[in-house]
């Protein structure tokens, strides 16, 4: 394997950094308006029609050329600005909400009137902040005559829909030099770690109905098939690699005890840090399903709902992102925001100091996170780096009503400004640091391995554009 060349970074001058921060700050009022509109009208995965249109309109107004309906996804898009020569730096923009997370922008639990979903993962901030960064970088490139292209990837359905996977599988990142992303959080951090790869699937069994008391011999229970498969899966747990996670629910087990169920369904996930292990364990589960069907006289089918790679971290890029996060203007709350946070924090199990929103956590590399994201697939085809900023009150859990509440007011907006400024300065630094990009690519290739060839864990299925409608 090649050794990484020394990364002779070209940090931004104070003048350049101030220029980019100013561009982000100038756009921040509009960024906050966009985030608020997305928050007030949360749209679920693959259904983000108004949200996607809003982000596209902003980018076109700023001079970007937008390609719509990419990867076979109506709400996915790519916006491009800059020259055809020089590096290509991508910025990801998520946008989908979560079902059943309605919450008003108040520091106590209270559903928003007339709204069922909610941005409990902060993707409204993610999308608006990434657009702000891309517009700032676009202006900076033009005003300073810097060669290169900045791209904003509108990426739908991160929450269980594996939206980015279809974009990666379609080759949409093949010519990208570096990909940047961020995520709302309760802390500020640019450490780089690994996530869990996963495959999610619905395994369905079909049998024969019969009266369970009068004619049980005429029935073939589809629920028996599900339960037999689950029993074999639970025995399998002793014989899978460490860090493997298998979890399931029975989404259809029949309607009445006195009727032999003729259909049943299990919805399950397999997770592990290594995508290859996930693929192997899932293949074993399919064999268990086959055995369960044979033993119960039923038939089975498998629908892969989603599948993502683990995030492949990059230390070269992580240190660059950390440097730019520390150089950005810190978050500062006013009295009203502090009062909101103080009241909301009484509802949290953990209560870190509110002053920590101005701090940046120590940089770390290579830690294992126990979550899954479709950013993982992007990171195996393009050197990728991310960060998190404090858009929530310290101690807030992801996917909670407290996250929705803070994301709907200025606490969320101030954390988003920090993310946008960091992304913009990191991208600008990369545009004038070809040696850093090269070092990141060498590390990337070494981490993937010489024999690596990308193959999506979702297989060849089409995007499940109705997955939120059918659940």
From TrEMBL:
For this protein, the record's Gene3D superfamilies field holds: 3.30.70.360, Zn peptidases
Where is the Peptidase M20 dimerisation domain positioned along the sequence? 199-292
Q: Which UniProt keywords apply?
A: Hydrolase
> A Pfam family matched by this chain, by name?
M20_dimer
Q: In its keyword annotation, does this UniProt entry include Hydrolase?
A: yes
Q: Which SUPFAM superfamilies match?
A: Bacterial exopeptidase dimerisation domain, Zn-dependent exopeptidases
PANTHER family linked: PEPTIDASE M20, XAA-ARG DIPEPTIDASE
Write down what this protein is called. Answer: Amidohydrolase
Q: Which organism is it from?
A: Nitratireductor aquimarinus
Q: What is the lineage of its organism?
A: Bacteria, Pseudomonadati, Pseudomonadota, Alphaproteobacteria, Hyphomicrobiales
């Amino acid at each position: 394997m090649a050794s990484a060349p020394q990364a002779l970074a070209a940090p931004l001058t104070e003048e350049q950094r101030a220029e980019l921060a100013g561009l982000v700050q100038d756009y921040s009022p509009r960024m906050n308006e966009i985030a608020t509109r997305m928050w007030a009208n949360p749209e679920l995965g693959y259904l983000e029609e108004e949200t996607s249109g809003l982000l596209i309109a902003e980018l076109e107004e700023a001079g970007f050329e937008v390609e719509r309906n990419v990867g076979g996804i109506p709400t996915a898009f790519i916006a491009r600005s800059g020259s055809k020569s020089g590096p290509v730096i991508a910025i990801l923009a998520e946008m989908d909400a979560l079902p059943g997370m309605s919450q008003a922008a108040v520091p106590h639990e209270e559903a928003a009137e007339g709204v069922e979903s909610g941005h409990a993962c902060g993707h409204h901030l993610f999308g608006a902040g990434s657009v702000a960064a891309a517009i700032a970088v676009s202006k900076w490139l033009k005003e300073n005559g810097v060669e290169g292209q900045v791209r904003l990837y509108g990426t739908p359905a991160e929450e269980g829909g594996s939206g980015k996977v279809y974009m990666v599988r379609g080759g949409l990142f093949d010519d990208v030099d570096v990909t940047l992303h961020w995520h709302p959080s309760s802390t500020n951090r640019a450490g780089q770690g690994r996530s869990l790869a996963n495959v999610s699937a619905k395994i369905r069994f079909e049998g024969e109905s019969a009266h369970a008391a009068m004619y049980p011999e005429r029935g073939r229970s589809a629920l028996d098939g599900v339960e037999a498969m689950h029993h074999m899966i639970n025995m399998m747990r002793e014989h899978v690699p460490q860090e493997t996670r298998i979890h399931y629910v029975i989404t259809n087990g029949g309607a009445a005890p006195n009727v032999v169920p003729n259909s049943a369904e299990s919805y399950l996930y397999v997770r592990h840090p290594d995508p290859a292990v996930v693929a192997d364990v899932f293949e074993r589960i399919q064999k268990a399903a086959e055995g369960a069907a044979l033993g119960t006289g039923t038939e089975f089918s498998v629908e892969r709902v989603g599948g993502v790679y683990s995030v492949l971290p990059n230390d070269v890029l992580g240190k660059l992102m950390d440097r730019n996060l520390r150089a950005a203007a810190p978050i500062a709350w006013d009295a009203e925001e502090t009062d909101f946070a103080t009241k909301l924090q009484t509802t949290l199990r953990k209560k870190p100091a509110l002053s920590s929103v101005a701090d940046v956590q120590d940089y770390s590399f290579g830690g294992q996170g126990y979550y899954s994201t479709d950013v993982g697939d992007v990171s195996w085809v393009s050197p990728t780096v991310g960060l998190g900023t404090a858009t929530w009150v310290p101690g807030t859990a992801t996917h909670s009503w407290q996250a929705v509440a803070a994301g709907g007011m200025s606490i969320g907006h101030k954390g988003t400004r920090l993310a946008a400024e960091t992304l913009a300065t990191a991208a600008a630094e990369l545009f004038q640091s070809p040696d850093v990009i090269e070092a990141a690519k060498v590390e990337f290739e070494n981490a993937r391995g010489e024999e690596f060839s990308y193959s999506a864990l979702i297989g060849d299925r089409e995007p499940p554009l109705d997955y939120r409608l059918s659940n």
